[in-house]
Amino acid sequence: MNTFKKSALKIAITSALLTGANFNLAAAEEASASEVERIQVTGSRIKRTDMEAASPVVTLTSVEMESRGFSSVQDVLDSLAQNTGGSMTGQSVHGFTPAASGVNLRGAGMGRSLTLIDGKRLMKYPKAAGGTDNFIDTANLPLAAVERIDVLTTGASAIYGSDAMGGVINIILKKDYDGVGLKLRTGDTFEGGRGQDNVALTVGSSSDKGNITFMIEYDQKEQLKATDRENFGIHTDLAFGDHPYNSYSSYGARIAGPGGYSLPEEECTAQGYKYWDNAPICGFDRSAWRDLLPEQDRLSTMVNYHYELNDNHEFYGRTDFTSSGSVTNIEPMAINDYKFQVDGNNLIVTVDPSLTAFNDLSTTFDKQTAFNGDFADLGDGNYEYRRRLKEYGNRITDASTKVFYSVFGLRGDVTDDIGYDFSYAFGRSELMTFNRGYASVGDFYNVLTADNGHSLLQPLSSSQVAESKYTGWSEAQSNISQFQFNLNGTAFELPAGDISWAAGVESTREWFFDFSDEERQRRGVLSTGGASGEGARDYWAVYGEVLVPVFESFSVTLAGRHDDFSDFGSHFSPQISAEYRPMEELLIRALWASTFRAPDMQRVYGDTSTGFSQITDPQGCTASGGTIDPNSPIPACNGELYITSLSGPNANLDPETGENWNVGFVYSGDNWSVTMDVWEVTIDDIVDTLTSQDIANSPDLYGNLITRDNTGVITFINQTAQNLANQTTAGVDTSFTYNFDMGNAGELRFKGDVSYLSKYDEQTTSEDPVIDNIEDASIPEWRSTASVGYNIDDFSTTLSVRYVGEMNGTNVEFFRDDASFEYPLTIDSLTTINWTASYNLPYYNSVIKVGVNNLTDEGPNADYTDTGWPHYPRSYHFPNGREWFMGLEAQF
After folding, report:
1. Which of the 8 DSSP states describes residue 369?
2. Contacts of 517 (CB under 8 A, 6+ apart)
3. pLDDT of 54-82, one tens digit each?
4. Looking at the 3D structure of the chain, how many domains does it have?
5. Cα distance between residue 676 and residue 875, in whole Å
6. Is residue 388 part of a domain?
7. Contact call for residues 543 and 159 (beta carbons, < 8 A)
8. Is residue 475 one of the residues assigned to a domain?
9. How far, rounded to the nearest angstrom, does the alpha carbon of residue 855 sit from its chain's CA centroid?
10. Can you give the pLDDT at residue 30?
């Protein structure tokens, strides 16, 4: 979207807000509460009158979400105290999943938390996180359509099947809207960057027989560049000032190898690079070219309808369509893909041997005169230019996503005691990306070796760039088709009450493809790789659930589900839970559940995926005559060795399996409630690919996966998916609510959630020692949210707090016993405060809202042990800074 359109939209929205346009907040809360009472409890297919059950559920209503200043579904999920492992957000600008988002409940991992809409399973994002892990994207869900979000904080494979290991997120959409509603919101940050605009229109019509509701929402977010956050000290590679891993990229302009050299300072700076005195070396400031968050825009539409055919049967359905786009900017290409061998007076130029499609390219020059004499004084050996090709500009990923989902069905009563729900759903998610700012390996080789060779210590001409530049593309699609038939009812009466039950069958087909252009697939594009893959799986399931009232105050629920997959076989998931109510105000609950997750389809059906990693190579560092040191000029020693990595599929993967247990209580009165739950999540046979750094750190164990050049430095690592790891997390969740009616003085509302992580153990493989991640990894033990709200007459205001506790640095284990490391080993806790206020206007059923998020302008806290940019935990901390917004809602 161009600047004029952005400005025009912001001006239009701001003007509307300032002129004003009375949506009654108390009425909205009352309507929301009554709607909650009519909706089936998440975590069970048995309809019941009690909202609290054996499975702990955290619920956030639309009114509550807006009162806390949230502007998107992902904002809501980011804030969850149970989001132990943090979120994948748009900050992952170098990742496989442009602008997509996901959560990591209980630290179980991306993709091990199931996301539903109105209880229906969704299709996966077309590209896997990290190129391997399927997940459901939460970035494109329109907040204006959401009535509430239920978060089941325990596993539920016996109810929902695969993926429900760390928890279940059930997004309940608004229904039965009558009239016309308009919502406008605009906002910006105080330091600039990441301005946001949102417009939503809802139209609904009801009759005695049914309702149809139409919603359309447009949302736009501006990019946030690293250079916009000088106030946080993350605008440059020298982030956070005094940082042990502050260094410019050594890929400024130099020749690496024995006796290699860099451009001198004056010429280095004249060409727009950064001379790094600490090395000394001609370097490059990557952050000056990077986004912290990409530019995004989204248009979402939804039609939700239901119609009573007669007193016992109802037809219902929903159709959604979302079109979204994002533009991500990162620094220009780093090049070291061409090898220069000095042999006497000969200079032999070849392409990196790992780029096998170009192994036949070889040109011999006179070293004295070729390449502007750059190699004339160098002795025999192997060399390479290392430079950022800034003439090609930013590497840009332009991604567009189209998501379609439709469900329709019949529901009603078979008899007075038995209800049914039969539905069919189809969903498709398409992703198209174009990658600019790249060069073809072959064409650049021709530019490099033309005439008597072009010195890469000198700039390239515009014609040379035009001759070799390359725009790549990829196209990916993910689909789901599912039939569901559910029955629920009561059986016979016991002395303590009726036995309730639910049963059903499902038939599902999922399929995907992921293709890159042919040049990228053969690794013919500098500094990027490509992947292809396609596959399909069919599975069916039969499940049942029965609630038995053993005594008047004690009941037991048994559930089981059998899933049968076309590619890896079948799995049975049992679950048992108990509820004890010694008094009306107190519920004591316990649950045990078996869980599983089918292998990611990209892990089973994907082709090999080529990527690039930045690592430290301890063995290669020693072979190069160096020691591990962030200021070393040797990339293998300073953490800036760029290597090629290859991830491959495994058609023989088994499902991941696990167990959950939960024990707790709910104690509540007329205007207050307190809950506490002790929980544990165990996952075995986790499908994993060892990271390039893990493999490099253990050459004795994984030497067969490593390729080195003739100097002993890693050039290539082969990664293969396997059922490798085991993980156990455990902790305690508590929550409280309290509403205090002060009569004519108004009403106060308090709410809080606290999650304490007491255990987070992992084994990379069954042969490896158990790792205490609380002790040795970057995981916060404490997370919490809290809010206090005040209502009087037409005015309402809320102050909400989000807290992420202190955590270890990424490489704390490496530095713990290093007496010379003079920096903190932990990352400071982060507390952010949001404030909102609203006022009901006396006309047009409207309410005006204002707010400031991150009231105290907190920025991300430094991880002094992290060698990689931006040196803070992007899964937990955000760079937005203080933000203001204002909004208007009107109903006609």
Report:
1. T
2. 472, 473, 474, 530
3. 889 999 999 999 999 999 998 999 899 99
4. 1
5. 26
6. no
7. yes
8. yes
9. 25
10. 43
